[in-house]
Fold these 4 entries.
Entry 1:
Amino acid sequence: MLTGDNESYEAARRLAAGVALGQALDVRDPESWIGLDLGVRELAWIRPELLHSNAAPSGRRLRWEWNASLPTVTWPRKPGDAELALALCHPDGQIREAALGQSGGRLALFALVVIRCADWAGPVRERARALLAEAPPQQLAAHAALILRVGRRSRGGFAQDLLTRALHTGPASQAEALLNSGDRATARLAHRVAVERRLLPGSRLARTAARHPDVVVQDLCANAAVATLGEGTGEGVFDEFAAILAPLLGSRQPWVRSAGVTALRRAGRHADAEPYLTDRSAVVRACARWVLRRGGTDPAPLYRAMCADPAAQPAAAAGLGECGVREDTDLVRALLAHPAPGVRACAVAGVRALEAVSVADVQPLLNDPSVAVVRQATKALLPRAGHVPREQLRALLTEDRPRHQRVAAIRLLRAAGVHT
């Protein structure tokens, strides 16, 4: 037996009881249609009399008879949308196929035609696809979220291909209307089409990358925005910098900032990458170092100078560890005792990047009041957990210890093969 959720079953039961389609389920929600498809099949298994009855003046029950060796579906009157919806979801493929013959031009049932395009039964699938191929592009776009959900199925590519072609070849406004869709897959497709068709200016792509909640859209738009930048250092490039790179560089998302930092080289503004040497993201710091090197500046001396007074730029210790040499170890290690917790945490990350972790130096930081410091110290000590004194770790397990210290002790004890 198919087991849909309770609401899907109830929607099917309401349809069979005579409730109108728009009242039986939320016709705006793609999941409601997919759920209805399962709910009707479950209803046919549990309460088949609700679907097949010769006496149902007030209900939406189907009446189907055998004509010679072929089944036919008959209704005592012209079937309504609710009756056809039940038939389109029926477990018998011949009933579904017959219902498709009644569904042409019925916009209220278009969602079920989309679902039937991925039907397991070939005749049903082909008939539904023939109907869908005749649909206007705007109708496909209106059902984009459902089409993309169905597209994940093994036979669901047909409808998705139709939609993609419609967005690529139709009016620009059709694709642009889907850019702000609340459905993640729809927003991704719309932005991909908009980028491929070059429908959006670089400044809008940059703002979208900086603000959009979806990481795929962020990455797509950030790369597309950078691609609109020209090479060189002329006045036009400066204008592009203000309109495109500024939103990217100001984004809260590290991948978006890294795209903006990398583009500084393309804009001929290598020196502007220097503030990002101490970005909180290691990816952004790496991009900043690359840009500076392409402009002829070695970032290591800059990091060494920052480490002389790192309070304002705590990530300098981590950055020096990422690009420094063995001789920089003492400079970074000295910052393990810095009064600022941000500096201490970055110093641990720095000695770890330099592959110069000393258990004796780092283990006292497991007692640090800062969550960030203890987290970094734990990462550094995990490969050396067997060398951390067990007594110290067990002392961190007492109830009076802060939670982050207890968690660190548990992780290190387990890494050392000690069950807690």
Entry 2:
Amino acid sequence: MAEIDFLIDGIEAADTPTFLFAHGAGATMEAPFMGMVAEGLAARGIRVARFEFDYMAARRRGGPKRPPPKVEMLQQEYHAAVAALRCDGPFVIGGKSMGGRVASLIANDLRAAGAIDGLLCLGYPFHPQGKPEKLRTAHLAELTVATLICQGTRDPFGTKEEVAGYDLSEEIELLWVEDGDHDLKPRKRVTGLDHAAQLERVCDVAAAWIRQRR
């Protein structure tokens, strides 16, 4: 497993709340969505540490473009990132899409060990796109860690109508982003809503929620 390089936004005071932020399946840690959220949270007093799974970091080093490995390997890599990141204040893990799913699969064990204080997912992939029958929700019913999921109401990986029928843990809070897609982006021409403004609201809510952990 390669050494983990973190991309840090925000101050690094000892008691600053930290969010460990993993990317989605097809985007790097420097993707525009990742940057907008990281900068937005940092502006609200949250230290954000972005990192890349090995398959994505290898692309940056000039390696071939490959799909993500099995989720079990990604879980091991996420565990390694948690262990490598120093954090004395409230510590929340999570990510965009696949990154959030991987974090959710290890969150209970990390919380039981006292290693984390919460889970934050942005655009959770409740099922593969176009395959609503293949749910990725069984473990979400058993979550024991405080969780915030920020989801677009028309996300093709789990719409508001679909998610309403899922069995989810009482620890999960949902922040619905009006008309948002998988990147929480609304159809501006249809709704008049602005993506940047939507993400500002998400960062407002998420930062306040992170500060409440512990």
Entry 3:
Amino acid sequence: MGVGETIYGYVRVSTQDQNEARQLAAMRKFGVPEENVVVEKLSGKDFNRPRYQRLVRALRREDVLVVKSIDRLGRNYTEILDQWSFITKKREAAIVVLDMPLLDTRQSRDLTGTLISDIVLQLLSYVAQTERENIRQRQAEGIAAAKARGVHFGPEAQAPPENFAALHRAWRARQLTLREAADACGMPKSTFYDAALRAETAAGRV
């Protein structure tokens, strides 16, 4: 790193993600000063990145931004390319992607090196987005196939109260209305009815 250059690291994880430690370890191994590592935790639905935006605005010419993988820069192909262009061309800073040594613009500031780096980036960004879309499609297909087999998704049904069986029999014998039986069990009518159907199915009555 030359005189006057500053090296920064950016770590982004979701609120449930467990790879924060791996990213931080990679930053330390590369030599990013601990005080220059910016960590941002985001939920899956919220991609506002105030810490990242402040970091990018603070970059100066020939500073270095280190990320573990290219998807730390954005959510999709277009956003990653936009961020790459803004950092390397507008801010004139360098980017190092630890998972892909070819994406290290410190060593490719000439025209040919920049062109090669940009081509590699576009290819990898496209592959990364395509794989994410394929994963989502496979998940959707898997869920649809499981539902077709009768697999239930969602929270497990709670066990009915102890008086459910007696009230169920009274309801089926028309000694109680559905509302009366459900109220006596402390259950909503729909929950009582669903529990009744499950019980009857299990008993072979439906």
Entry 4:
Amino acid sequence: MVNKLISLALRNRVLVLLLAAGLFGWGVYSLRRNPIDAIPDLSENQVIVFTEWSGRSPQVMEDQVTYPLVSNLQGIPKVKNIRGTSMFGMSFVYLLFEDNVDLYWARSRVLERLNYAQRLLPPQVTPTLGPDGTGVGHVLWYTLDAKNLDLGEQRALQDWYVKFALQTVPGVSEVASFGGFEKQYQINLDPTKLNYYRIPLAEVLRAVKSNNNDVGGRKFELSDMGYIVRGLGYIKNIQDVENMPVGTFQSVPVRVKDVATVQMGGDIRLGIFDENGQGEAVGGIVVMRYGENADLVIKAVKAKMAEVQKGLPPGVKFTFAYDRSTLIEKAVASIRGTLVEEMITVSIIVLIFLFNWRSALIILIQMPLSIAIAFILLEAFHVSSNIMSLTGIALAIGVIVDDGIVVVENAYRHLAEAQAAEATAPPPGPDPEVVTYPQPTAAPAPQPTTV
């Protein structure tokens, strides 16, 4: 079989060269399309359902949120396992699917089932799907270097400007903010004053909620002009909150400032983010979407940051706490350097021991061709170019080189022996004359006589 393949290749040299060129071009195309990352993604094929219910204990979250969701999400096609976790004010449900299931198909099935499970949850409790990322989707961590802004202003800048801009980058699933204080209006009620004015707490909550809203009217025409009537009620400052009416006492309106004090503060925090021991910082985590190219996503995010930088206040800039592109570039540079070093080393060894440039050329051609075929297979089996796969290719280069040297040296030796045997063989001439001589015959044996 091998002899037939060799003979076929020798008889169709042009076809073999065209096939090799086509494979090399296909490999270069696959290399450009194949996702590049630093570490392989070994996480489960999962969909996360997140539910928030502020102020509830873990036991209440387990009984009224986690258990109804887990019991009703069972039966989704191709689900291997369902895990539920309850904590203070939050519930997480992890649905693990089979490895061959498309992630977005799984998310659509979960979303269909959530529409049915919604009626079993308490009012105003809405479960949501987690981002379409993976366990290794955190590709970039950044912080805001803003010495002239306090932590509340930095967090507001991150939440209402930077985050929205970076979420528009293709391949970004989510930008999660961390650090600082989330600004909020805080109303500190005085129970004594509420009791004096005979105003229940629920009435204060209803009044504040209803007064922080715009209302619509209708349109009417006057003197060939159209006018739209609407009521403006959104809160803009602390005085707006203080002047909200919450009830009446002896025909006198009672406002919020009569029963409480209003201030601007930050939400309750369960932790802080400290950067290199130099104090608190505010920033975000860029989560890459499932199956995207990490290197291209990071480059696109950095390009978007350069545009966002123009709109930041003076003295505010981005700093990177974690950047996976550095590791990616080092891995790619390592495989490129290994390939060049081995090609040069093999060329020198072959030229020294065989002293034949054609033999060296054969070995040099097969190395990039073999690597190109390897990237074709990576693209076909949806395996990213990461440290593990690139290291495997680098190790395989040594095997390819060894085999090539052995085969080429053996072929070179056989050719040399054939040429030497042909040089020492006598020249061909006429066949010598063959003379035949008759062979003597034996005397016949005497016959017996009968008397």
